[in-house]
Amino acid sequence: MYHRPVLLNECMELLDIQPGGIYVDATFGGGGHSQEILKRLESGRLIGFDQDEDAAANAFEDPRFTFVNHNFRFMKNFLRLHKQVPVNGILADLGVSSHQIDVPARGFSTRSEGALDMRMDRRKPLTAHTIINTYAEAKLIDIFRFYGDLINARKLASRIITSRREKEIASTIELVSIAKTCAGKGKENKYLAQVFQALRIEVNQEMETLEEFLGQCLDVLTSKGWLAVISYHSLEDRKVKNYFRTGNFEGELKKDFYGNVLSPWIMVTRKAVVAGKKEIEENSRARSARLRVAEKK
Hints:
The chain is of the alpha/beta class. It has twelve helices and seven strands. The chain has helices at about 10-15, 30-40, 75-80, 100, 130-135, 135-145, 155-165, 170-180, 190-205, 205-220, 235-245, 275-280; strands at about 20-25, 45-50, 65-70, 85-95, 220-230, 265, 290-295. The chain has a seven-stranded mixed β-sheet with strand order 3-2-1-4-5-7-6, with helices on both faces. Helix 6 packs across helix 7 (about 155-165) and helix 10 (about 205-220) packs parallel to helix 11 (about 235-245). The two termini are about 40 Å apart.
């Protein structure tokens, strides 16, 4: 399977999919969520976005479906191009697909040897190789500290700088061997996952892209339209939660004269929805998934 969709049943139960509505799957991947949405459509439309060219091979022929091989940060422009504004609902499943992790050449896996790539869109120039071999030490520290939550980011950055002075760091396995020297005993796997997460976020500009995407959703959604986001780490989830609760990414509550919170959203899920025990047993990736849903006022 290219990618097993997480929280599929929960999404379909929470999302008010109307037979004649227009919907967006902002992260098409293997098409799992899209297939379930299409089952519920009659005269409606579904537009799927994915920047990864490998995902394009999963696009299916259906008169109700349009695939767009671009990043969801360009969603508003392409929806206007296809004359599909406003839409009734948007679903985004953030993070890396199983396919991307399982292909060593993509460089996302800590367990397989591959090039230091980590690009979700291989048309873009920036790679993990460039970051590891050219970024200044101070910038590496910031990346590992803020995107990977590493308390010893300075130590890791220093060892990377020392190693690359001797020779270029060319593969994932070479980076893994350096990073392991900074990990606590018995915590190597978690540490490596944090290192790779930090690099992946920087390569793909994930935080900036998420903010751009969320900001566009208000512009393209109809009144009472919903937005559902599945996130996998605290940085993403915090942005989504703040945006739904307050209408801004800082989480700053603004109130009117009567004390009512000035947010353009009504939170459908007060707490993040998480996967059940059975799903986690069948798909370990679901363990860190957090689903939040909000409705446009």
